[in-house]
Amino acid sequence: MYPKVFKDLIEHFASLPSVGPKMAERLVLFLFKKDREKLDDFSQSLLALKNLTVCQKCFNISENTHCHICHDKQRIQNIICVVEDPLDIISIERTGIYRGLYHVLGGTMQSSGKSEKNELKIPQLLTRVINEKIEEVILATNPTTEGDLTALYLKRKLQPTQIKITRLGRGMSTGGDIEYADETTLSSALSNRKEL
Ligand SMILES: [Zn+2]
Question: By Cβ atoms counted within 10 A, which residue in 1, 38, 64, 144 is the most buried?
Answer without folding.
Answer: 144
